[in-house]
Amino acid sequence: MRLDKLLANSGYGSRKEVKSIVKAGAVMVDGKPAKDVKAHVDPDAQEVTVYGEPIDYREFIYIMMNKPQGVLSATEDSRQKTVVDLLTPDELRFEPFPAGRLDKDTEGFLLLTNDGQLAHRLLSPKKHVPKTYEVHLKSQISPEDITSLETGVFIEGGYKTKPAQAEIKANDKGHTVIYLTITEGKYHQVKQMANAVGNEVIYLKRLSMGRVSLDPALEPGEYRELTEEELERLNEPQV
Ligand code: URA
Description:
Blueprint lengths: L2 H7 L5 H9 L3 E3 L2 E2 L14 E3 L2 E2 L7 E6 L21 H4 L4 E2 L7 E8 L2 H8 L7 E7 L5 H9 L2 E2 L3 E2 L4 E8 L2 E8 L6 H8 L4 E9 L2 E2 L9 E3 L2 H8 L4
Parallel strand pairs: 7-13
Antiparallel strand pairs: 1-2, 1-3, 3-4, 5-7, 5-15, 6-7, 8-12, 8-13, 9-10, 11-12, 13-14
Helix pairs in contact: 1-2
Uracil binds next to helix 6.
């Protein structure tokens, strides 16, 4: 990797800014002053120091965000706020992007990462990664509707949804909440599934992806990095 990219990714400023610290002779590679910001260095095999301090380099970032309502799952938008707008320069230097989408009015677990391979694995329909949602419905739900949601319902384009798991949490008049676990991610899938059984989603929150649950300490709009253990669990093949 180029030295300027390595330094920028390690938090020493923009590529332009790191040029000046290299010029000032503050950067050493394997004990020798670096001269050329375009030179290639291998952070795993070579020691890079800035003002004598070894740099703390890592390639990837994995952020668990409790996505708030009203914010787009995108990296940029000319008019509307995106989840990336909620991050600070400390995280932005890794150029994270949302791994998948939640609707603007959906809350809950959104992974932001720059690890394209992990994002691909989590989103690939072939990998069957389960995603669990807390779904608040407008009307009460019958056991028959729960069975239909589980066995598959027809949504847009005549597509039949794959087997899912549905569980009633509350089913009083005016307060119907289910947990729905699906392994695919068709457009507005949960809302479409609710519509298919004559119901309507009034609030939606993603609670988990794979075997990793949203940290209940995160308020909407808050985020933290995944722990190593959570990352391992996300990387495990799904059963
Ligand atoms: N299904 C939906 O309908 N919306 C989401 O945001 C996620 C799943």
